[in-house]
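Private note to self, pasted from the team thread so I don't lose it. Backbone tokens:
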């Protein structure tokens, strides 16, 4: 079994920063990619960023490029999302996801495992 637990969400003013964490447990040795997605109220879940578990290559949606940074610590089975220069439109529930298949994906159905999500609210 695989478990992903997000933390670090909260309320922040526009222009502020937050750091999300995702703790992975279970069959983490089978992971090839980890991703962060978000879902705003009334909208579909969308890709934010991804990282290759072994090699560390990173990928971002254009809307967050230059503001968000994804990283991982394989020794601790942790993935992070550093979010800077936050905007009200970044308000959403943020989800951590993991995939066994090679490389990464920016599609929701490209990931087998999901966390429960953590709320990020950015006030204007």
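Design output:
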């Amino acid at each position: 079994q695989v478990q992903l637990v997000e933390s670090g969400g909260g309320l922040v003013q526009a222009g502020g920063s937050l750091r999300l964490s995702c703790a992975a447990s279970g069959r983490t040795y089978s992971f090839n990619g980890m991703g962060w997605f978000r879902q705003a109220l009334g909208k579909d879940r969308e890709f934010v960023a991804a990282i290759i578990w072994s090699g560390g290559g990173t990928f971002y949606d254009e809307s967050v490029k230059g503001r968000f940074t994804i990283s991982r610590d394989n020794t601790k089975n942790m993935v992070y999302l550093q979010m800077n220069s936050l905007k009200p439109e970044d308000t959403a529930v943020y989800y951590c996801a993991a995939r066994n298949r090679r490389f990464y994906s920016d599609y929701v159905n490209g990931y087998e495992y999901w966390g429960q999500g953590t709320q990020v609210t950015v006030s204007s």
